[in-house]
Amino acid sequence: MEPIIESFTKIDTSTISDALDKLGIDGQCFGIQSNSVSWKIAGRAFTVKYGPVSIEKGTVGDFIDDVKPGEIVVIDNQGRLDCTVWGDIMTGVAKHKGIAGTVIDGVCRDTNRILELDYPVFSSNRYMRTGKDRVQVDSIGEAVSIANIRVRPGDIIVGDSDGVVVIPQEMEEQVLSVAIEIEGAEHQIRLATEKGMSLKEARSYYNYHNLQTKGE
């Protein structure tokens, strides 16, 4: 695992979200939820975009053979909730290959199998209806949109019980640095309040109200 990916595994999405706000980056994927609150993922994006089927119906999932261990499959199904693009077979292959997880702007199915294999899937929702003959892969390895957030191949994805954030490659070092700074300040605030300092005093002393403010 890359050192920077390992570092992001130790920071929750709430703190990363605050760092993104501080830097003026839109990276919070509204409405994309974990299917288990116990999962935490961090890795680089392998992007896939789906569209409605054409006259000659195309493939729905063979791209999984090209995903590398540790990568996160990021699927843009345009937010469709009426048919799935991820189920038990994809889950089994992904788990076997050591893929870090899957993020879907859309729905998944076979949730019991996903939970049984403990394979992290983050999605808009769950629904049993197949995407076969309804959607097809339009592109692989190109920029996609997840809940109106742009994701490019190689961007860092972090997901946990609070949702999913996207960190642009060219800003990853800055986001990490700011997130560590925010995390440290909040830790000091917690320690101070445990020792008897009022929350108002602790927040003021550690500059809490400017931690997430852009440009401050």
Compile the SSE list and pairings.
Layout: H1 3-9, H2 13-23, E1 33-34, E2 41-52, E3 72-84, H3 88-97, E4 101-108, H4 111-117, E5 121-126, E6 135-140, E7 144-146, E8 149-151, E9 156-160, E10 163-167, H5 172-194, H6 199-205
Parallel strand pairs: 2-3, 3-4, 4-5
Antiparallel strand pairs: 1-5, 2-6, 2-9, 7-8, 9-10
Helix pairs in contact: 2-5, 3-4
Account of the 3D structure:
The chain has 216 residues and is α/β, with parallel strands linked by helices. The protein folds into 2 domains: 1-25 and 169-216, no CATH class; 26-167, Glucose Oxidase, domain 1 (3-Layer(bba) Sandwich), CATH 3.50.30. 30% of the residues lie in helices and 29% in strands. It has helices at 3-9, 13-23, 88-97, 111-117, 172-194, 199-205; strands at residues 33-34, 41-52, 72-84, 101-108, 121-126, 135-140, 144-146, 149-151, 156-160, 163-167. Helix 3 (88-97) links the parallel strand 3 and strand 4 (101-108). The chain is elongated and about 65 Å long.
